[in-house]
Design goal:
Shape: globular
Number of strands: 13
CATH architecture of the largest domain: 3-Layer(aba) Sandwich
Strand order of the largest sheet: 3-2-1-4-5-6-7
CATH superfamily of the largest domain: Glycogen Phosphorylase B
Largest sheet: 7 strands, parallel
Helix content: 25-40%
CATH class of the largest domain: Alpha Beta
Number of domains: 2
Length: 407
């Protein structure tokens, strides 16, 4: 009999993680298994049996209380009890959790159920895919930009208190750390999955090190992201000038905003730089730079593929990231990548498909830009497309099913 799989995530079918959840659900169903997708917000996913955890009101209340108390993940009690009742009704063999943060579930109640009820059965398994560092810190989802290593011992006086999940007043990072350590450890038959070796290495240094850790890189839709015709250059007046592309949502200093402005000044008007995902205020600011093309956020995969295809180089100057799929999307469209050695960002980039520079080395980035612009474009394009082909979504789903689920 095929095992039943229940998925849990903040969203389903939208955003990179939401698409992973529904893609996995489809792949598992194709193997003859029954699935249920439990999600915390937005519209239900099409074509999937789904369960909404809580309501808009419970999400808003959870978010508001978190901002006051810094106790994110300890509200939504009614919503979580409803989820637990649904799990008992569905009776899955595997529970596959993704993000359990996002103002929609009470992790203390959920993990108490996993430890004291669900995982007591030898046939039951728990998979937890981490997409950031929140599970083993007292507050933050990323710490690399700050260089904070308190999570290795015990968090306190959090320097990221003003970042998601933002707290306006209190700093409960010490208490949060202690409760997560108590609640998240001791679950039988739990396997952690990370999208990058970088995150996996951090998990092994944290209080979650008791669990086996597998790395399954996040895949991309190579049917949507591929080299294709584009009128981007004509539409934005780029012509035959070299075009660099940067993408972030949102743009801020830790995503390389200021470094892009330095890059603009150093390269001059002979090179155009498109920045996608800017707020209107940011767009007004960067429009003062004559060689920058400001673009407000787009949700169109086709438009993004056109931008990647029209660009000569994708430049990712993030100071922290788990495993950015934009690097892969660019390569799938034949575009080489320059990125900082930050988090898991360099893991998909090779010497044949781009360049890796140390964090903040804008001078080195400029050298790499010139090197790649003067390189063999056809050879770069071929290498990039071949590299990205290794990260197709279907292959990643197969890896989950065979190597993680054991189906």
């Amino acid at each position: 009999m095929s095992p039943k799989v229940l998925f849990i995530n903040t969203v389903a079918g939208k955003g990179s993680v939401g698409r992973i959840v529904t893609g996995l659900s489809s792949a598992v169903k194709a193997k003859g298994s029954e699935t249920l997708v439990a999600y915390g917000r937005w519209d239900p996913p099409e074509g999937h049996d789904s369960y909404r955890i809580g309501s808009d009101m419970s999400v808003y209340l959870h978010g508001a209380l978190s901002r006051i108390t810094d106790r994110h993940g300890l509200y939504s009690s009614v919503a979580t009890r409803g989820l637990i009742d649904k799990i008992r009704e569905f009776d899955p063999d595997i529970i596959h959790m993704h993000n359990v943060h996002g103002y929609y579930v009470n992790y203390k109640l959920l993990f108490s159920f996993l430890k004291n009820d669900f995982s007591k059965a030898d046939s039951h398994r728990v998979i937890w895919t981490l997409h950031d560092c929140w599970s083993f810190t007292g507050h933050c989802v990323h710490f690399e930009y700050r260089g904070c290593m308190r999570w290795k011992e015990e968090c306190h006086h959090c320097p990221e208190k003003d970042q998601y999940p933002r707290s306006l007043f209190m700093d409960a990072s010490r208490e949060n750390y202690r409760e997560k350590k108590s609640d998240f450890t001791g679950v039988r038959n739990l396997t952690i999955v990370t999208p990058s070796e970088w995150l996996g290495s951090r998990v092994r240094e944290s209080f979650l090190k008791e669990y086996p850790v597998k790395c399954v890189p996040t895949g991309i839709d190579t049917g949507s992201f591929k080299k294709q015709p584009s009128d981007i250059r004509e539409r934005y007046g780029v012509g035959k000038a070299p075009l660099l592309l940067g993408v972030a949502n949102p743009w801020r200093e830790r995503k390389g905003l200021e470094d892009f402005l330095k890059l603009s000044e150093e390269l001059g008007e002979g090179v155009r730089i498109a920045m996608i995902g800017l707020s209107r205020k940011q767009a007004d600011r960067v429009s003062k730079y004559p060689n920058i093309i400001p673009v407000i956020k787009t949700d169109s995969l086709k438009e993004m593929a056109e931008w990647y295809s029209a660009s000569d180089i994708y430049v990712n100057l993030t100071y922290e990231d788990t495993f950015p799929t934009t690097n892969l999307e660019a390569m799938a469209c034949g575009t080489p990548v320059i990125t900082y050695r930050a988090g898991g960002s360099p893991e998909s980039v090779t010497e044949e498909t781009g360049r890796i520079r140390e964090i903040g080395d804008v001078t080195g980035v400029i050298e790499s830009v010139k090197e790649l612009l003067n390189g063999d474009k056809d050879r770069l394009e071929k290498a990039c497309i071949e590299r990205a082909g290794l990260y197709g979504s279907e292959e990643r789903f197969r890896q989950y099913i065979e190597e993680v689920y054991g189906l």
